[in-house]
Recover the amino acids of this structure.
C-alpha cells in the first residue's frame, strides 16, 4: 500500500507543532501569563486588604484560603505573578544581552580581547551569584522589582557569554563566513547577515534558560528578605508565610501555591527549551 | 598540564582578590556616614558602643589614606580578624563562622556527592528505554526547576509537621547540650536529614536530566555508530558513552557551585539549620555588617575551593588534559 | 561460490514526507577474490546499499529482498542476529572513519575491548596486528596513543586494520579516499588491494563516486543511478565500452590525463537525478538520457548480456525483448 507523502510547507513549523514538549511547555507558560493578566479581575479583593478570618483553609469565598492576617491568598497569588514575569523577562533579557555581547565579541575578535574578556567572565562565573547579590542588596538595598531585575541581569550572564563565545567560534570557522570576507563584505554586514541568523535560534534558547533562572533567583532573593520592600511576589509570599509560622501551623494553602507555580513555570520553560532544541536540531528528533 | 593549573589558579586568585575588594568597597557606597549608620542601627549597650566605634574607626580607618585602609583590610583578613559580630556581640566573627561551617558542610557535601552519583546513574538508565524517558523527563525537569526553599518547605511540612517524623528547626534539639554521645549524634542526624534530603532531591533532578541529554548525544556520535557496525554489545557502547558523558557533568559540577551555595542558604533558612547560610541571612536581617562581610568571604572561599577540587578530579578523569591536549577551560 | 548474493533488495528511508526509495531493487553478486566498485553520484543509493549490509537501523527501513553471504542467508533486517556476522563475517570501513575512534580511549584499549567482546585477548592477535600495522605503514607505538594524537590519515588506517582484524569474508569500504590527498589516496587504495591479495578479506565492495579510483583497483564496477542498478561489468569493459547511456556520460565526462584539448569544455551531465520520494515510473534516467525513446516509460530490467557477466538495465541496449 503506497502512502501518500504529506505536503510539508515549512519543515520547522511542522516540527514545532508536532513536538509535544514545545506544546506542553508553551501551554503552561501561556496559562500563567493569562492568569497574571486576568487573575486580578477574577477576585473582588485587594491583595493587602484584611478581608476575612485569619488562617482559613481554601473554601468557596477564599479559593486559596487566607493568610495569618486574614488576607486572601488567591488575590495575593495572582498579583504576585506579574512581578515574577517582570523580573524574569527583564533580568533574563539583560543577562542574555550582556552575555551575548561579551561572548560574541570575545569569540569574533579573538586574540587578547578574547583573553581579557574570558578571564573576566570566568571570574564573575566563579563568584556565587547569590553571595554577590546578597552583598549588593544588603548594602545598596533593593527598592523595586526593576532594580532587582538589573541586579540579576548583571550577575547571571557569564554562562551565556561562554556559550555564545563557543557558538561564535564554531560559526566563524564555517565556510560561508570566509566566503563573505573574501567577497569584501564589511564586518558589520557579515555579522548581521551571515552570522546572526544562525545564532538566532540559539539565542532564543539561551534567553528561555535565563528567563527561568532569573525567576528562581528573584524568588530566592525575595524569600531571604532582600526583595523590594513594597509589593508582592510569589517569593515574598513564601517568605511572609514562613516568617509568620505557617509551617508549624500547617497552613499549606499559603506556601504551596506560590512555590508550585514557580516550579511549574520554570519547569515548563525548561521543557520548552528541550523541545526547541529538538526542532532546531534535526539529529535529536524522534521519528 | 601545568598550563591548565596556572590558568585555573589565576582565575581563582583574581576572584579572591575581587571578592575581598568588593567586601571592602561596598560599605563605602552606602549613603551617609557608614559608622554612624551602623552604630545607630545596632541596638547596643553603652560600653559596647565605644568598643564598636573604636573598631569601626580602625576598620574603616577614615583618618588614614584610602590605600592604607585597603591594605589594613587585607592585613586583617590574613590575620583572621574579621571583626566582631554585632548581632552576637562580643563574639568575633571568625568564631561565629567557624561554629556554623560544619553544619553547612554536613548537609552540602553528602548532598552534592550522592546526588551527582545517583543522578548520573539514573539519567543514564532512563535514557535506555523510550517509555521511561518520556515519563521521567518532565519529572526531572520539574525537580530541577523546583525552588530549593519550596521543596524544603514541602518536606518540612510533609514529614515534619503533618507526619511528625522529623524536626523542622535547629541543628539539634533545644533541650540538649552538645556532647560526644551517641544520643547527641543521633539527634544531630535526625535534624540533619530533611535539609539534606531537600538539597539532594533538587540537585538529583538536575544531574539526571543533564546526564540523559549527554548520553543521547554520545550514543549518536560517530564512534558509537562504528562500534555498532562492529557488532559490539550494547553494554560496551553504553559504557563508552557513559564514560564520555561524565566529563561535561564534572565541569557542570564546578559551574553549579554558585547555585548550590544559594540552595544551601535558603534551605538552611527554612529549617533554621545553623549553618553559614542561615547565618548570613540572620546577619542581613540584623544588619550586622561584619558578619555579612565575613560570611561572604567564607562562602567565596568555599566555592573557590570546591571549584579547585573539581578541576583536579577532571584532570584525573579526562586522560586528554594530562597530555595537555584540551583547550577547553 | 559467490561471497555475496543480493536479490531484489529494497531499503527505503523513513522521513516525515514519506518513504524515500533510496535502494529500489538491487540484484547482483560478488565472487570470491573480487573487488567490486560501487559507483554513482551522491544520492544514488550506493551508501545505502553498503550500510544496509552491515547496520540497517532507523531511519533506514528494510522492505524486501534476500542477501546471502557465502551461501548462507544474512539477516540484515534483524539487528540482534546480525551481531554474530558483524566484524567476523562482514565488516565496514565507514565514511566517517576519521571520527570513528572513541576520543577518550587509547587505541590499544579500543582494540582490546572489541576483541574482548568476541572472547579474544589482545595478546592473542598481537603478532598478526603488528603485521597489519606494518602493511598500512603505522608504527606500533600508535597503540599507546589517543586518537587525538593521530593525523586523519593515521586514524583512518587504524580503522582499516581494526575493521579487518578478524578476516571478515566481505569488507565494505565506504568513501575511504574522499577526504584524503592524492598521494595518500593511492597508498590507501593499494592497501585495500593488499587486503584482498593477502586474503584478509575474501571480497571487497568499494563505494566511491571517484571512478578513477575504481579504475586502479576494482575488478568489476557496478554503476547505480537513482536507487537502481544501471550497469555492471569488468573494469576494462566499463571504462572502454560503457553501454548504459548514464555510464557513457560518466566515463566520457572524465578528463583524460595526457590528452590535450584545444577547445573543448568539460561536459557534465545536464539536469539532476529525480526525487526518490515519488520516483517517476519507468527508467529513472529517462529525463536526462539523450537516447530515451517510448519504451523507456517502462522500467528496464537488469539483464545479463552475455557470458562475460555484463549486466545492463537499458532498453536501447537489451532491445525490445526483456
Amino acid at each position: 500500500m503506497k502512502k501518500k507523502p504529506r505536503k510539508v510547507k515549512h519543515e520547522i513549523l511542522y516540527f514545532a507543532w508536532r513536538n509535544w514538549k514545545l506544546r506542553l511547555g508553551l501551554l503552561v507558560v501561556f496559562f500563567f501569563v493569562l492568569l497574571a493578566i486576568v487573575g486580578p479581575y477574577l477576585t473582588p479583593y485587594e491583595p493587602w486588604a484584611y478581608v476575612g478570618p485569619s488562617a482559613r483553609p481554601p473554601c468557596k469565598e477564599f479559593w486559596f484560603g487566607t493568610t495569618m492576617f486574614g488576607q486572601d491568598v488567591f488575590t495575593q497569588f495572582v498579583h504576585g505573578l506579574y512581578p515574577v514575569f517582570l523580573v524574569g523577562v527583564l533580568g533574563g533579557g539583560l543577562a542574555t544581552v550582556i552575555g551575548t555581547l561579551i561572548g560574541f565579541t570575545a569569540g569574533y575578535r579573538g586574540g587578547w580581547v578574547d583573553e581579557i574578556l574570558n578571564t573576566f567572565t570566568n571570574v564573575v562565573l566563579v563568584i556565587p551569584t547569590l553571595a554577590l547579590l546578597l552583598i549588593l542588596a544588603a548594602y545598596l538595598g533593593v527598592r523595586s522589582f526593576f532594580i532587582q531585575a538589573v541586579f540579576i541581569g548583571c550577575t547571571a550572564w557569564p554562562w551565556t557569554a561562554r556559550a555564545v563565545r563557543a557558538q561564535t567560534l564554531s560559526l566563524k570557522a564555517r565556510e560561508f563566513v570566509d566566503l563573505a570576507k573574501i567577497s569584501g563584505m564589511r564586518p558589520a554586514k557579515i555579522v548581521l547577515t551571515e552570522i546572526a541568523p544562525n545564532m538566532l535560534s540559539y539565542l532564543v534558547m539561551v534567553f528561555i534558560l535565563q528567563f527561568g533562572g532569573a525567576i528562581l533567583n528573584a524568588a530566592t532573593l525575595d524569600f531571604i528578605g532582600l526583595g523590594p520592600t513594597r509589593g508582592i511576589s510569589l517569593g515574598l509570599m513564601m517568605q511572609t508565610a514562613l516568617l509568620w509560622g505557617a509551617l508549624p501551623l500547617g497552613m499549606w494553602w499559603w506556601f504551596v501555591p506560590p512555590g508550585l507555580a514557580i516550579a511549574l513555570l520554570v519547569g515548563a520553560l525548561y521543557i520548552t527549551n528541550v523541545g526547541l532544541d529538538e526542532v532546531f536540531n534535526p539529529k535529536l528528533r524522534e521519528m | 598540564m601545568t598550563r591548565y593549573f596556572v590558568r585555573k589558579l589565576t582565575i581563582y586568585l583574581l576572584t579572591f582578590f575581587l571578592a575581598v575588594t568588593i567586601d571592602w568597597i561596598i560599605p563605602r557606597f552606602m549613603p551617609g556616614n557608614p559608622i554612624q549608620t551602623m552604630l545607630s542601627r545596632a541596638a547596643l549597650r553603652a560600653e559596647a558602643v565605644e568598643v564598636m566605634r573604636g573598631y569601626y574607626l580602625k576598620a574603616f580607618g577614615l583618618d588614614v589614606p584610602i590605600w592604607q585602609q585597603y591594605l589594613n583590610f587585607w592585613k586583617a583578613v590574613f590575620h583572621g580578624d574579621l571583626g566582631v559580630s554585632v548581632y552576637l556581640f562580643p563574639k568575633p566573627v571568625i568564631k561565629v563562622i567557624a561554629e556554623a561551617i560544619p553544619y553547612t558542610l554536613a548537609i552540602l557535601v553528602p548532598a552534592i556527592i550522592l546526588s551527582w552519583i545517583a543522578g548520573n546513574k539514573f539519567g543514564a538508565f532512563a535514557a535506555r528505554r523510550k517509555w521511561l524517558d518520556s515519563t521521567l523527563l518532565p519529572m526531572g525537569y520539574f525537580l530541577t526547576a523546583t525552588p530549593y526553599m519550596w521543596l524544603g518547605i514541602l518536606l518540612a511540612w510533609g514529614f515534619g509537621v503533618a507526619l511528625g517524623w522529623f524536626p523542622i528547626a535547629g541543628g539539634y534539639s533545644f533541650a540538649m547540650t552538645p556532647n560526644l554521645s551517641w544520643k547527641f549524634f543521633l539527634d544531630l542526624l535526625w535534624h540533619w536529614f530533611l535539609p539534606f534530603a531537600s538539597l539532594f532531591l533538587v540537585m538529583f533532578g538536575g544531574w539526571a536530566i543533564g546526564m540523559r541529554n549527554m548520553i543521547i548525544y554520545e550514543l549518536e556520535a560517530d564512534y558509537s555508530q562504528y562500534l555498532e557496525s562492529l557488532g559490539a554489545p550494547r553494554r560496551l557502547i553504553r559504557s563508552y558513552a557513559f564514560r564520555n558523558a561524565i566529563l561535561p557533568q564534572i565541569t557542570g559540577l564546578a559551574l553549579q557551585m554558585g547555585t548550590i551555595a544559594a540552595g544551601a542558604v535558603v534551605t538552611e533558612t527554612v529549617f533554621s539549620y545553623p549553618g553559614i547560610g542561615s547565618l548570613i541571612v540572620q546577619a542581613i536581617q540584623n544588619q550586622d555588617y561584619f558578619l555579612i562581610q565575613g560570611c561572604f568571604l567564607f562562602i567565596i572561599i568555599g566555592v573557590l575551593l570546591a571549584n579547585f577540587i573539581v578541576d583536579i578530579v577532571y584532570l584525573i578523569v579526562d586522560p586528554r588534559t594530562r597530555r595537555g591536549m584540551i583547550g577547553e577551560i | 561460490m559467490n561471497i555475496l548474493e543480493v536479490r531484489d533488495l529494497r531499503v527505503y528511508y523513513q522521513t516525515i514526507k514519506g518513504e524515500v526509495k533510496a535502494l529500489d531493487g538491487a540484484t547482483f553478486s560478488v565472487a570470491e577474490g573480487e573487488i567490486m566498485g560501487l559507483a554513482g553520484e551522491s544520492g544514488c543509493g550506493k551508501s545505502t546499499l553498503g550500510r544496509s549490509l552491515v547496520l540497517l537501523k532507523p531511519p533506514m527501513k528494510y522492505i524486501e529482498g534476500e542477501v546471502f553471504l557465502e551461501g548462507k542467508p544474512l539477516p540484515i533486517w534483524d539487528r540482534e542476529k546480525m551481531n554474530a556476522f558483524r566484524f567476523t563475517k562482514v565488516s565496514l570501513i565507514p565514511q566517517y572513519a576519521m571520527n570513528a575512534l572513541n576520543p577518550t580511549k587509547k587505541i590499544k584499549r579500543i582494540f582490546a575491548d572489541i576483541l574482548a567482546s568476541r572472547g579474544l585477548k589482545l595478546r592473542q592477535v598481537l603478532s598478526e596486528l603488528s603485521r597489519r600495522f606494518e602493511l598500512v605503514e603505522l608504527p606500533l607505538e600508535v597503540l599507546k596513543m589517543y586518537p587525538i594524537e593521530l593525523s586523519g590519515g593515521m586514524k583512518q588506517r587504524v580503522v582499516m586494520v581494526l575493521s579487518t582484524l578478524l578476516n571478515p569474508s566481505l569488507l565494505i569500504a565506504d568513501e575511504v579516499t574522499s577526504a584524503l590527498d592524492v598521494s595518500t589516496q593511492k597508498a590507501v587504495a593499494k592497501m585495500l588491494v593488499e587486503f584482498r591479495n593477502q586474503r584478509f578479506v575474501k571480497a571487497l565492495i568499494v563505494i566511491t563516486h571517484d571512478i578513477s579510483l575504481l579504475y586502479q583497483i576494482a575488478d568489476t564496477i557496478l554503476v547505480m543511478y537513482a536507487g537502481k542498478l544501471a550497469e555492471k561489468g569488468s573494469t576494462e569493459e566499463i571504462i572502454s565500452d560503457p553501454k548504459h547511456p548514464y555510464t557513457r556520460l560518466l566515463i566520457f565526462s572524465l578528463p583524460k590525463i595526457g590528452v590535450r584539448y584545444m577547445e573543448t569544455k568539460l561536459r557534465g551531465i545536464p539536469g539532476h537525478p529525480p526525487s526518490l520520494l515519488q520516483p517517476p515510473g519507468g527508467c529513472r534516467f529517462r529525463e536526462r538520457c539523450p537516447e530515451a525513446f517510448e519504451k523507456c516509460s517502462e522500467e528496464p530490467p537488469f539483464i545479463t548480456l552475455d557470458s562475460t557477466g555484463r549486466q545492463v538495465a537499458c532498453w536501447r541496449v537489451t532491445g525490445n525483448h526483456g
About this structure: Residues 182-219 of chain B form the longest helix (38 residues). Chain B has a mean pLDDT of 82.
